[in-house]
Specification:
heterodimer; A: 574 residues; alpha/beta; eight-stranded mixed beta sheet; five-stranded parallel beta sheet; elongated; B: 74 residues; mainly alpha; 4 helices; 59% helix; globular
Chain lengths: 574, 74
């Protein structure tokens, strides 16, 4: 969301009037006119609540200004090659080697002088010298380029510890060469760069300031399905998910995993926040042939059936970092919007629908973690985080997400004994492993039998919310014997978990059964290593537990006492 | 358009839009120096989606001249 130049000036004014915190003083030194840059940097920093006051030095006086402003919090130096002598961009290419050397000597001693003055300053940013704006036309490099190379080598060799060197060519490239320069202003007043350039530059160097002020992000937390691999582990199984560069879908995710490893290597906390069975995910992490991200890269895991907001809050708490230092990555509209709503200070990134943009998105957010003092010790930090997170001895904080669920405008449609859904219902019995009470698999022929039989009623539902439609995502087969109903099958796709839809579905089924004269309902739960999350489903739905034997539990509910358990924010269409 | 121009000027010169008079020039507004003049040009060009020529920039030293020139360009 870009503001116009005028709007930006006004916003800066407003901010300054109301600013309560101490000012963060930035001095910009230059040998060209760069005054227009100042409000752009103020704006970028003010938006992050930094009371930045950015002022420019005197024209063409870097050396002298470096004496005067050395105590400022941050000093930025724009040292333009084209103006180290007037018109160097055209004079350089007819200079003799002696003249060139004399120039280099002059400039390097000025550089020495400036570094000497600024070596004890808190932080310096210097742009590397560049010829791109003038020389991009040429196939061959020339003397101007040679001077540039020598001076940059000198900068790199002699820059003091407190200096960050900026590759200004990247900023020019991001802005486009043509849009970076304003030749009209350059010839009339030696103001080389355009406002577009300044905009890009201010954004580019923000991480340096944020790191100094302790505002760098510290953790990136990933969802798993369709975020670290293609596919849904609970539905597609270990063999069905893809994350190798040799597959069409996996290629994006292999890169993502390597990028995550890269972050872990730099000491950034990498974690998981996924709705899955934890042992399923652990198995993938330790044994999948294509997994690249491993347990030693991952500092913390929240793989459970709880809401993702509570998980992130706990992650922050366990690692003892601010919730605002977390970046969260997920493919789901539901989860990303939930986190944006309840944890606005978390940077929530959604995996792009066009997957080829996904690695770019992550790279674009690498610098939010920028740490000015990147050291070897960062790997040790990961290890301390890991040991801390294993101490799970604190009370879980759960947040009510009902307001969010209401805002989703959920709508379900129930289908009873629908012939057209036979294939889909059969498919669901095969694919669904987690939210599945009895895990019975039925062929199309068998489901056809249920639909057409008077002894069975089949139910199915589809659901949509404000983000889109999910299609048929749940089914239930009820066997009727006299006036008693047996819930043979009750299952729901894990895509629609966390919205209480399962209770609505069950409620509609019970309503229907009561209407047709059923007096009592029996249900069964058969435990598998994948459906632990539904072990208490019938109890939570108000059924009485009748008995427990090994891995099975039986339940009953009398429909005489049954009252509707309507979830008001889910609309039912028939 | 008058108000739009005054709004831009007020942002660049850090004044209240209401304090900018039709009769104002670079001599009557204190913060209207050469550096702010450049900023004013940038802001006006963006606001009205126009481009001033070199010769025109030098001439835009009063509210009246600005209004005239922009009207002729739109």
């Amino acid at each position: 969301m870009e503001v116009t130049y005028t709007e930006m000036l006004k916003l800066n004014s407003e901010f300054k009037k109301n600013a309560k915190s101490e000012s963060y003083n930035v001095a910009v030194l230059s040998n060209i006119i760069i005054n227009q840059f100042c409000p752009f940097l103020e704006y970028e920093l003010q938006r992050a609540e930094v009371n930045a006051v950015v002022s420019s030095g005197n024209y063409d006086n870097i050396a002298q200004d470096s004496e005067v402003c050395k105590d400022q919090a941050l000093i930025i130096v724009f040292w333009e090659l084209c103006n180290i002598i007037d018109g160097l961009q055209y004079k350089a290419n007819v200079m003799t080697p002696n003249e060139t050397q004399a120039l280099l000597d002059k400039v390097t001693s000025e550089i020495d002088f400036v570094f000497q003055n600024l070596k004890n300053s808190r932080q310096i940013i210097i742009n590397k010298f560049s010829t791109l704006i003038f020389n991009h036309h040429f196939l061959r490099s020339n003397n101007f380029d040679l001077i540039c190379k020598q001076l940059n080598a000198y900068l790199e060799k002699n820059a003091p510890q407190n200096t960050v060197l900026i590759d200004i060519d990247k900023i020019i490239a991001k802005t486009s060469i043509q849009k970076s320069v304003d030749f009209r202003n350059f010839y009339s007043s030696k103001a080389l760069y355009s406002t577009d350039f300044y905009r890009t530059y201010a954004k580019y160097i923000k991480p340096v300031v944020f790191s100094i002020l302790g505002k760098a992000k510290k953790a990136v937390i990933f969802d798993c399905d369709n975020t670290l691999w293609a596919g849904i582990l609970g539905e597609d199984g270990e063999l069905g998910i893809q994350m190798s560069s040799t597959t069409k879908k996996g290629v994006y995710f292999e890169e993502i995993q390597y990028l995550a490893k890269q972050l872990a290597k730099k000491g950034i906390v990498v974690g998981l926040n996924s709705k899955n069975n934890d042992h399923d995910v652990d198995k993938v992490l330790s044994t999948h042939s294509d997994i690249r991200l491993s347990d030693k890269d991952i500092a913390i895991k929240k793989v459970n059936w709880n809401d993702k907001v509570s998980n992130l809050t706990q992650i922050a708490s366990q690692l003892n970092i601010g919730i605002d230092s977390i970046v969260f990555v997920d493919d789901s509209d539901f989860e990303v919007n939930l986190v944006k709503e309840y944890l606005p200070n978390v940077t929530a990134l959604q995996v792009p629908k066009q997957l080829y943009l996904y690695p770019e998105l992550i790279r674009d957010h690498f610098d939010v973690f920028y740490n000015i003092k990147e050291t070897e010790d960062d790997q040790k930090r990961i290890d301390t985080y890991k040991t801390q997170s294993l101490r799970d001895d604190f009370k879980a904080e759960f947040v009510s997400i009902e307001d969010y669920l209401i805002s989703l405008k959920l709508e379900m449609r129930i289908y009873i004994d629908d012939l057209q859904l036979i294939d889909r219902m059969s498919q669901l019995t095969h694919k669904t492993n987690q939210f599945n009470l009895t895990t019975k698999r039925y062929t199309v022929t068998e489901v056809d039998g249920f639909v057409n039989s008077n002894d069975y009623i089949t139910f199915a539902f589809d659901v949509k919310d404000r983000f889109g439609a999910f299609g048929i995502v749940g089914t239930s087969f009820i066997e009727i014997i006299n006036d008693i109903a047996f819930i043979d099958t009750f299952l729901m796709s894990c895509r629609v978990l966390g919205r209480n839809i399962e209770f609505s579905f069950l409620n509609e089924i019970l309503k229907h059964l009561k209407e047709i004269g059923i007096v009592s309902v029996k249900a069964l739960y058969v435990e598998t290593n994948k459906n632990a999350q539904v072990s208490h489903f019938y109890e939570r739905a108000g059924f009485d537990i009748e008995g427990k034997e090994g891995q099975q539990a039986t339940y009953s509910l009398s429909l005489n006492n049954f009252t509707e358990n309507k979830i008001t924010y889910i609309k039912i269409a028939k | 358009m008058k108000n739009q121009i005054k709004n831009v000027m007020s942002a660049v010169f850090e004044m209240n839009p209401g304090d900018i008079l039709d009769s104002d020039t670079s001599s009557t507004i204190e913060s209207w120096d050469s550096l702010n003049h450049m900023n004013l040009i940038v802001a006006l060009e963006e606001e009205f989606n126009i481009r001033f020529e070199d010769e025109e920039i030098v001439e835009l030293t009063s509210f009246v001249k600005i209004e005239e020139l922009i009207s002729s360009k739109i």
